[in-house]
Design goal:
742 residues; alpha+beta; Rossmann fold; four-stranded antiparallel beta sheet; 11 helices; 42 strands; 17% helix; globular
């Protein structure tokens, strides 16, 4: 380490210590559900859609400084050994809401519409995508379905509008310096832009039908041809989802397949940018096969496809020589016990081989397959897992949990393999985007007590980093968030090592037994990142429960990644079985450790976590006193077809589907159950919770149904008023049945 690095490290250490002392000298503000789930967000807005300029000198991302949902475009310039300050290059117009007024109309429809306007303004996401122009000076931006050209170097230049159409443009990218390709109304279009906007749009495909059209596309490096993927949902059955929030009750019909029913089919083709027919590629064995990844070779003469059957048991990595019209199978993996498809493929920089992830040994690792037909070789190996990787001329850069199962760090190694060198240092989760030259990584980092922000990390030196964004609002420092402990214990069912994230209530005395909540129950929950499962806003809920005296334990159940192939495959054909035993193992461990009061144990989770919650209550009498199941998947026959990766087709696995569907065990309920469900949910149908509630109340069981009329599946992400209401019900329920200690 150089003297300059030592100096900066000392300054950072002193500053951190001083800040810590100041915060610890102050009395922290009590956890406040209303403040945690109100605007502006206490933790600010997570930077997203991070993308590098072609010359690796600038990084663009979507963000805001006010803690709202509305995203604008920011650009940070890489300055060697200098400070990094992002520049806001768009200020797009926001929606305004009419203040609610007293409503004298029948049923209050005027006031209701005003509420809808306010909610739309709150949830307005602003800019939805960005991509760099080849010159590295401009950005293509999608905003409310139209395309804009933005000056990446100026905060004052107004965006140039390229399209203004009734239909939305999506997935827009540059084709060379003067053309833009995009999807609209299910077809691929290309347009020249000059002067005031896009000119002479050309419709390259004519495939769109009522339930079919282009799903995605990739332009070749030389801009001469485009790979298109068409999806056809015509065979999928339509189902009605009642809507009670219009002037009259309506029955919107949605296409929604269940396991064993006809589902969507795809085909892959190539179309010339100059125009012409689509050439469809012979890539699939079955019309239901899935495309997991695709990439053009560096010279644009070959197309790489990573595909499998719908059950992800038969994987093939294919190479199409587009000029010769030939196809070869580079890699084939057939594994009847496989349950996941965390696969990635990438060309080597010289185009002579392909890097890919595979769990053919002990976990997901990077492999290399030469085009000459040689046997693939492992680039990484060990009792840890690769979650993603990127390839640059300087080497392979992987994100992995080596050393700490709950963390994710960036590592680098030579293209041919060898010794891993760790790039990131801070304990937590690093989600990185590598610059084209491989010298920098844009790192969205968070940990148990640090909300997500963007940093620039040098991959060439000692992993030194510079902060780009500061997202939390000023009053974030007034609250103290409880750090987690990461623990392991054996499964009561088969002895497998289980990993868990433990939060203990502040002020708990050593040996004091407290009420325990298992949750949020799901897979992949034992992570050192802000909120644990940071795709849901659990950070605030957890802190409220902790300060009320509850301990919280989240267990990585069977099916979770990062703990070995064998551990993940324990879940095969066994939803609601081995995973429920893993959760029960967590309860037993917490009791043995003197943490949990065995008479006051609760559990909660949503979606699959709702299945785990209900099954735990129905099959573990006396273990759990109360449980809250959000949008619970209580009927696996009604799941999405993707769950066939674990459960296969119900026609051949009727016994397993019955055992995995918690509603078949409901008569054994002895504790107290609350269901939270949105009536607009098309992922897990509200009717299943309505049916289960009616069944349980007729049996005289203790059940509550919290209905959210305007919620779909993400009931805790669809409006702050709804989130506050639902979480208050959850907290009240646990306090009622487990008893607060403070």
């Amino acid at each position: 380490m150089t003297p300059g690095h030592v100096c900066r490290a000392l300054i950072l250490a002193v500053a951190t210590a001083v800040t810590t002392d100041i915060l610890q000298s102050q009395s922290p503000q009590p956890a406040d559900l209303d403040r945690f789930y109100s605007a502006p967000s206490l933790i600010g807005t997570t930077p997203r859609s991070v993308t590098w300029s072609p010359d690796s000198k600038r990084v663009a991302f979507l963000w805001n400084t006010d803690g709202s949902n509305f995203l604008d475009v920011f650009v940070a310039t890489v300055i060697e050994n200098g400070a990094v300050a992002p520049t806001r290059v768009t200020t797009m117009p926001r929606r305004s809401a009419t203040p609610a007024a007293r409503d004298t109309t029948p049923l209050g429809f005027t006031q209701w519409r005003q509420q809808r306007e306010a909610l739309a303004a709150e949830l307005d996401g602003g800019v939805s995508s960005i991509t760099w122009h080849p010159d590295g000076e401009r950005l293509l931006v999608t905003f409310r379905g139209d395309l804009y050209l933005v000056n990446a170097a100026s905060a004052n230049a107004a965006p140039q509008r390229l399209t203004q159409t009734p239909s939305a443009e999506s997935r827009a990218v540059f084709v060379g310096a003067t053309r833009v390709a995009y999807l609209r109304d299910g077809d691929l279009h290309i347009a020249f832009f000059a002067g005031a906007g896009a000119q002479e749009p050309v419709r390259l495909t004519r495939l769109a039908r009522e339930a079919a059209g282009i799903e995605s596309f990739i332009v070749s490096p030389d801009g001469s041809q485009v790979m298109v993927t068409e999806v056809d949902r015509t065979a999928i059955r339509t189902r009605g989802i009642p809507d009670y929030l219009n002037d009259e009750t309506t029955m919107p019909m949605v296409r929604r397949a269940m396991p064993g029913e006809p589902s969507e089919i795809r085909r892959v083709g190539i179309v010339p940018v100059a125009g012409g027919d689509v050439t469809w590629l012979p890539w699939s064995k079955d019309r239901l096969d899935i495309v997991h990844g695709a990439q053009w070779s560096p010279d644009g003469t070959r197309l790489l496809l990573d595909v499998s059957d719908v059950f992800v048991k038969d994987r093939r990595i294919l190479v199409f020589a587009t000029n010769a019209g030939t196809v070869s199978t580079l890699v084939e993996e057939q594994e009847p016990n496989n349950v996941s498809a965390e696969w990635q493929v990438s060309w080597a920089p010289d185009g002579r081989g392909v890097y890919f992830t595979s769990d053919r040994r002990d976990d997901y690792h990077v492999w290399y397959a030469p085009l000459d037909g040689s046997i693939p070789r492992a680039v990484t190996s060990g009792e840890w897992a690769v979650s993603s990787f990127a390839v640059a001329p300087a080497g392979v850069y992987i994100t992995a949990n080596q050393g700490r199962a709950e963390e994710r760090h960036l590592w680098r190694l030579p293209l041919s393999g060898g010794t891993l060198q760790r790039v990131t240092r801070e304990a937590g989760t690093h989600t990185t985007t590598l610059s084209p030259d491989g010298r920098w990584a844009a790192d969205v980092f968070s940990s148990d007590t640090i909300p997500p922000d963007l940093y620039l990390v040098s991959t060439e030196h000692d992993g030194s980093r510079r902060r780009v964004t500061t997202s939390p609002t000023a009053d974030f420092a007034r609250y103290r968030f409880t750090p987690a402990r990461y623990v392991t214990f054996a499964s009561r069912a088969d002895g497998a090592t289980l990993h868990a994230r433990l939060l203990l209530p502040p002020g708990r005395r050593e040996g004091e037994r407290v009420p325990l909540i298992i949750g949020s129950a799901y897979s992949n929950t034992a992570r050192n990142q802000f909120g644990g499962r940071n795709s849901h806003p659990l950070w605030g809920l957890d802190q409220v429960l902790l300060e009320k005296g509850f301990a919280i334990l989240a267990v990585d159940v069977a099916g979770s990644g990062g703990h070995g192939t064998a551990f993940r495959r324990r879940i095969r054909l066994d939803y609601g079985g081995i995973d429920v035993e893993d959760l029960h193992s967590g309860v037993e461990w917490a009791v043995r450790e003197g943490i949990a009061d065995p008479a006051r144990v609760g559990i909660w989770g949503s979606s699959y976590g709702g299945l785990l919650t209900t099954m735990s209550l129905f099959t573990k009498p006396g273990v759990y006193k109360a449980g809250v199941a959000g949008a619970p998947a209580t009927n696996v026959w009604h799941a999405l077809t993707g769950e066939q990766r674990v459960m296969m087709r119900p026609q051949e696995q009727m016994k397993e589907y019955a055992e995995a569907s918690s509603h078949t065990r409901a008569d054994a309920l002895q504790g107290h159950l609350m269901l939270i469900h949105g009536m607009r949910d098309v992922v897990v149908l509200y009717r299943d919770s309505a049916w289960l509630t009616q069944y349980l109340l007729q049996m005289g069981k203790s059940v509550e149904l919290v209905t959210l009329p305007d919620a779909s599946h993400g009931w805790d992400l669809e409006g702050l008023a709804q989130t506050r209401y639902a979480l208050r019900q959850l907290i009240r329920f646990f306090e009622q049945h487990l008893g607060p200690t403070r």
